[in-house]
């Protein structure tokens, strides 16, 4: 009798229809619940993909030290994957990451290094490159690693096509490393070129975990602008309010980037009719409770 391992249960996450948040004009809003992955986010998919593919090429082997810059979810997923496969994981992140995220990474056995909030992800990426150049570990580099979007081309995209019976008309996703939107876009466009791919970035001045507006010199090299039909700017308050709406009106406890994805999906819904709009719920909201974002407004 075959029993699955933890790696076997990454992916195949539920796709659920929103019931109380109205999309109007006969539109259907569908949420892909990536928080149902073992380490709690969409990043479980590329984390395992990057390790498995690097192993297959002989670039890494169990016992090696791996170094990665992360703002949170990728770090948790990589820490889990390293624990499964027997790697030492060093994660570099801005100190502003939530306590739950830091504690989850540490729980899986990862070593954490913080940079200042002002240095941000750019500073974390710079430090990772410096440490790798000094020979302190091997890189995965989610921002330039084709095995990141490959995970979504192989799994997330096909799941969405099958779960909607090919009826999906719009795919809405936050853009951070851009791995999710790149891989899903490539797959869905192969099945139906008319499917609209909508990416989300923060408004100037907004700080939304998981969504980035990169300076040109830090733009992930895996990103191909031609694979995104439209980019929407999401405001800080807008993302946080829609995160709370997901929890209070739909019972979906998720993070701020997922609130941003809902906000983007509703904007699209206001413009179209008879559409099937899918958005990614990137993670679970329990890793944001210490931020106070879910607290009743005073």
TrEMBL record:
Highest rank taxon of the organism: Bacteria
Enzyme Commission code(s) on record: 2.5.1.47
Lineage: Bacteria, Pseudomonadati, Pseudomonadota, Gammaproteobacteria, Oceanospirillales
Catalytic activity from the UniProt record: O-acetyl-L-serine + hydrogen sulfide = L-cysteine + acetate
PANTHER family, per the entry: CYSTATHIONINE BETA-SYNTHASE
Family membership: Belongs to the cysteine synthase/cystathionine beta-synthase family.
Tryptophan synthase beta chain-like PALP domain: residues covered: 7-283
Gene assigned in the entry: cysM
Protein name: Cysteine synthase
Keyword Transport: no
Keywords: Amino-acid biosynthesis, Cysteine biosynthesis, Pyridoxal phosphate, Transferase
SUPFAM superfamilies: Tryptophan synthase beta subunit-like PLP-dependent enzymes
Needed cofactors: pyridoxal 5'-phosphate
């Amino acid at each position: 009798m075959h029993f699955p391992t933890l790696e076997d249960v990454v992916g195949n996450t539920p796709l659920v229809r929103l019931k109380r948040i109205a999309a109007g004009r006969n539109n259907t809003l569908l949420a892909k619940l990536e928080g149902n992955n073992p380490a709690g986010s969409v990043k479980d998919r590329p984390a395992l993909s990057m390790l498995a593919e690097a192993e297959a090429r002989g670039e890494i082997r169990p016992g090696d030290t791996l170094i990665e810059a992360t703002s949170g979810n990728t770090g948790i997923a990589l820490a889990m994957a390293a624990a499964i496969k027997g790697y030492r994981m060093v994660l570099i992140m801005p100190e502003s990451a939530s306590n739950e995220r830091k504690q989850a990474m540490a729980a899986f056995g990862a070593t954490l290094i913080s940079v200042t909030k002002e240095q941000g992800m750019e500073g974390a990426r710079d430090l990772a490159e410096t440490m790798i150049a000094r020979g302190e570990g091997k890189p995965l580099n989610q921002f330039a690693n084709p095995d990141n979007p490959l995970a979504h081309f192989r799994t997330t995209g096909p799941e969405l096509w099958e779960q909607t019976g090919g009826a999906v008309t719009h795919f809405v996703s936050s853009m951070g490393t851009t791995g999710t939107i790149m891989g899903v876009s490539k797959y869905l466009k192969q099945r139906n070129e008319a499917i609209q791919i909508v990416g989300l970035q923060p408004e100037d001045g907004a700080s939304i975990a998981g969504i980035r507006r990169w300076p040109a010199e830090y733009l992930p090299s895996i990103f191909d602008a031609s694979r995104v039909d439209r980019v929407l700017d999401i405001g800080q308050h807008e993302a946080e309010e829609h995160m709370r709406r997901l929890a209070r009106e739909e019972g979906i406890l998720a993070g701020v980037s997922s609130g941003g994805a809902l906000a983007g999906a509703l904007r699209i819904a206001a413009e179209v009719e008879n559409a099937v709009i899918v958005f990614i719920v990137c993670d679970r909201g329990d890793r944001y409770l210490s931020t106070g974002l879910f607290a009743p407004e005073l």
